[in-house]
Every structure is written in structure tokens, then in C-alpha cells.
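[AMINO ACID CHAIN]
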Amino acid sequence: MKQIFGLCIVAATLALSQAAWAQTPTVTSKLAANRIELVDGKTVRGPATQVKPGDVVEYSTTYANTGKSAVEHLQATLPIPAGMTLLADSAQPGKAQATADNVNFAAMPLMHSVKQADGSTRQEPVPLADYRALRWDVGTIAPGKDAVVSLRVRVNPPLGSAAPKP
């Protein structure tokens, strides 16, 4: 019985050591949410622990390659929480794709068909309030390096209430 147990340990050790040799690059991610204010013409960031309608929140995620080889073809996605509206031109880096259904991503601005009174259809931009996530093709991250993606949103007023005055 001890021999079978010993063989199992050796087999498990071999399997684990082979897995360690064949390790894929390791990517960690850290999400930050900051409330954004303009004070004397300068952007001031603070924790977004409490926000109210009309506040601007910046979500950013840092993707760090903690492995020993490059990470290739990395795609980074940031969701847009319910009750928030994406701010135009706030995506960083700039060439993000968007989705309104959390399935299909396309270049911004997203477009949809709107039926006209005469029965024809025309393409119109999807309202930014309907965007649910942005995605970036980050590409390659070298070992020990990182990449950051971010977007800004405005907190919507509660349903049925008037929008806050700017």
C-alpha cells in the first residue's frame, strides 16, 4: 500500500513539475474607481466610495504581466455599471470597441437601425446611456510591464426624477 501511495506522490510531482515548466504568462488586474472633480481648472481624483447623480467616476484597470514571458493578444474589458452613462471620448486608450448587449462589440460610435414613419429605416447612433462595456485590444505586454485602460461615466439620476443641473 505504501508503494502505491509513493507512486501516486511521484506521479503527482511529475505532473506538477511539467505544468510548472509549461506555465503560461501570468496577468493580474487591478480595478480602481475614482470620483473626478474639476477644482480651479484642474482634474482632482478622489475615492468613489460615495457618489450622487451627476458625479463623474473614472474606472481604470491595470493589467500587469507578472510572468516570465510576454502576454500576447490581450483583450481588456471594462463594464459600465447600470445607472451610469459613458462620457463621450473618455476611453483611454482611444481605440476601444463598445457593446450595448454585452455580447457583440463594434467600433464606436455604435449604430442601430431606426424605423421611420414612412416605413424606411436609417442608421442612428446608439445613446451612450445604452453602452454596457468597452473592450480594447491591448496586444502584447512584456514581462514586468503593464497596460492601463480607463473610461469615465456620469452617475444617472434615479428613474423618474429630473436630471441634475450642471
